[in-house]
Specification:
Distance between the termini: 27 Å
Helix content: 25-40%
Structural class: alpha+beta
Number of domains: 2
Number of helices: 9
Shape: globular
CATH superfamily of the largest domain: Gcn5-related N-acetyltransferase (GNAT)
Strand order of the largest sheet: 1-2-3-4-5-6-13-7-12-11-10-9-8
Number of strands: 13
Length: about 350
């Protein structure tokens, strides 16, 4: 434990996080969200535990620091996560401060200082974070000179409000624009025979706009694909994936994925949707997403909402999302700074 002014700093081991610590982090997350993003469903402690333990690719979150007040209560925390397959210059920071501890910047400053020290030690000198637009945290980043590098929005499909006849027509129209492709279910974990095709499709995500973010292309390999599938399973996420396969040669042209948490089965999250450059112009993105909504209606009838994130500059995907009924529920900024 490290004492700084009137606060104490602890480091939590993400790989061996206790249930009690996960509950504390979830409580602070939900208290902050109630003020900054009240449209979000409360995060269950188990999902916090599993996310920090397994990440997206099987790596636990590299550092988790908490600040305790003089009375011992946790007032805030910061997660520091590193890409391990690419972007070895980069660190992602998730800074969360309880609304009751926002009277000044002391808690946030203590957490940020500790995170920066860890990043320097680990030679991760390009730091990225985010905040809900116009929130306390957005103001904090501005006060500390972290420039905005991208604008993003969270969109949501309310399942009960989906216009099913219109969705059916959108799907039929998209099928008419892509008559040489079949949409197929991709099991999880990825079967051996599909791995190389999926590597190529995953790389298509590198075409998504980054605005002013200094982020290199993601690198995908068979090892990473296996690790990603295993992490999703370990996080108790039900994975639904569809791919578009060209009938003439069997090559995959695109894919989409939605996950549903075991702990929150009414909430779905859109993961990546991508179409390979040479397969664009056939409305495959719209076809895949519309087909996914039909599939989820049958397999996940309890689902109430599906959330997705996009850069505001990703006009093509925004048009697809708008077409299938997504509405904006929150807007955010992404900030980035480089340590000297």
């Amino acid at each position: 434990m490290e004492a700084t002014a009137d606060v104490q700093l602890d480091r939590l081991d993400a790989a061996n996080l206790s249930d009690a610590d996960a509950a504390t982090l979830a409580s602070i997350t939900n208290a902050a969200a109630a003020v900054d993003s009240p449209h979000l469903s409360p995060v269950p402690p188990r999902q916090v535990l599993l996310r920090l333990r397994h990440g997206w690719d099987g790596f636990p979150t590299d550092h988790v620091f908490v600040v305790r007040s003089t009375g011992g209560a946790v007032a805030g925390f910061v997660e520091v996560g590193y890409p391990h397959w690419d972007n070895l210059h980069l660190a992602g920071l998730d800074l969360v401060v309880h609304p009751d501890a926002r009277g000044d910047d002391a808690v946030a400053d203590a957490l940020l200082g500790k995170a920066i020290d860890a990043c320097r030690t680990d030679s991760r000198l390009s730091l990225v974070s985010d905040a809900w637009r116009d929130s306390w945290l957005a103001g904090y980043w501005e006060r500390h000179g972290w420039p905005v590098a991208s604008h993003a929005a969270q969109r949501r499909i309310v399942v009960s409000e989906v216009d099913r006849p219109r969705l059916d027509q959108l799907l039929a129209d998209a099928e008419g624009s892509s008559p040489t492709y079949d949409v197929e279910v991709l099991p999880s974990p990825t079967p051996d025979g599909w791995v190389q095709d999926m590597i190529e499709v995953r790389r298509a995500m590198n075409d998504a706009p980054l605005d002013d973010l200094n982020i290199d292309d993601e690198e995908w390999s068979a090892e990473r694909l296996v690790a990603s599938d295993a992490a999703l399973a370990s996080r108790e996420l039900r994975v639904h994936r569809l791919v578009a396969r060209r009938r003439s040669d069997g090559v995959l042209g695109g894919f989409t994925a939605v996950v549903v948490e075991e702990a929150r089965p009414t909430v779905g999250f859109q993961e990546d949707t991508a179409v390979v450059g040479t397969h664009r112009g056939h409305r495959l993105g719209l076809r895949l997403k519309a087909a996914m909504l039909q599939r989820l209606a049958a397999l996940e009838p309890q689902l109430q909402t599906i959330d997705t994130w996009n850069a505001e500059s990703n006009t093509h995907m925004l048009a697809v999302n708008d077409a299938i009924g997504c509405v904006v529920v929150g807007r955010a900024i992404e900030v980035q700074t480089t340590l000297a």
